[in-house]
């Protein structure tokens, strides 16, 4: 696998230094941009040659000048080829939901081991949507606490189709695991199928729901108030 170019947006100097020191030990990634807030990030990335820009950017949420959620929203709009991961101390529902709405592809807590952060970067590079376990539980709770109108539908051509009719029971089961933040390998172990088969099911889910990422599935599930998929 090619080295993944990454960027960091962090206003705390000590945390920046710690991240830079830790990340250098991982050959899978290369830190090519460091910014102190969203405005600094947008200025620096505009000045970079396209081929040298980060493919994935990790950003804090609470920052002066421009916070992480605004950074993701503007960065996602101006540079759709760049993926964003929230790297923060916040694990409350509002921040999770706002981050997903802004276009973040992952949400990791800063106290995660550096190895887990690198795994999250690799997951996003492969089309995943990683979350720290506590974040995944909160995201799932957002769905289960929602009052869902019936039937829940998704676009299907010019009409709408109930999601239960559009996806198979196995696909619904895997979709909930996606929301929980499980990796392909973890889903495979829980469902007793191969990771390749998991990828195939997820690709079918993408096609049926007209989405292109796990984060988009989570966003759609929250927006449409789907919850308790296994019990349907």
Automatic annotation (TrEMBL):
The keyword S-adenosyl-L-methionine does not apply. Keywords: DNA-binding, Phosphoprotein. The keyword DNA-binding applies. The modification 4-aspartylphosphate is found at residue 60. Pfam families: GerE, Response_reg. InterPro entries: CheY-like_superfamily, NreC/VraR/RcsB-like_REC, Sig_transdc_resp-reg_C-effctor, Sig_transdc_resp-reg_receiver, Tscrpt_reg_LuxR_C, WalR-like. GO terms for biological process: phosphorelay signal transduction system; regulation of DNA-templated transcription. PANTHER family: TWO-COMPONENT RESPONSE REGULATOR. Coiled coil: none annotated. Residues 5-125 form the Response regulatory domain. One of its GO terms (molecular function) is DNA binding. It comes from the Bacteria. Residues 160-225 form the HTH luxR-type domain. Transmembrane segments: none annotated. This is DNA-binding response regulator, NarL/FixJ family, contains REC and HTH domains. It comes from Flexibacter flexilis DSM 6793.
């Amino acid at each position: 696998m090619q080295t993944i170019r990454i960027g960091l947006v962090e206003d705390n100097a000590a945390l920046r230094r710690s991240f830079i020191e830790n990340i250098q030990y991982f050959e899978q990634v290369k830190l090519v941009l460091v910014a102190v807030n969203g405005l600094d990030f947008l200025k620096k990335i505009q000045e970079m040659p396209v081929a040298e820009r980060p493919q994935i950017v990790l950003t804090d949420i609470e920052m002066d000048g421009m916070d992480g959620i605004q950074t993701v929203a503007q960065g996602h709009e101006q540079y759709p080829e760049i993926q964003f991961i929230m790297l923060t101390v916040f694990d409350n529902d509002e921040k999770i939901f706002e981050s997903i709405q802004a276009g973040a592809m992952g949400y990791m807590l800063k106290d995660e081991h550096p190895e887990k952060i690198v795994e999250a970067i690799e997951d996003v590079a492969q089309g995943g949507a990683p979350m720290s376990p506590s974040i995944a539980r909160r995201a799932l709770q957002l769905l289960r606490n929602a009052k869902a109108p019936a039937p829940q539908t998704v676009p299907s051509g010019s009409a709408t189709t109930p999601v239960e009719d559009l996806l198979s029971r196995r696909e619904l089961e895997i979709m909930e695991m996606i929301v929980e933040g499980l990796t392909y390998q973890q889903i495979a172990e829980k469902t007793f199928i191969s990771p390749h088969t998991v990828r195939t099911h997820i690709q079918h889910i993408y096609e049926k729901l007209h989405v292109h990422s796990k984060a988009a599935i989570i966003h759609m599930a929250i927006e449409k108030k789907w919850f308790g998929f296994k019990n349907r």
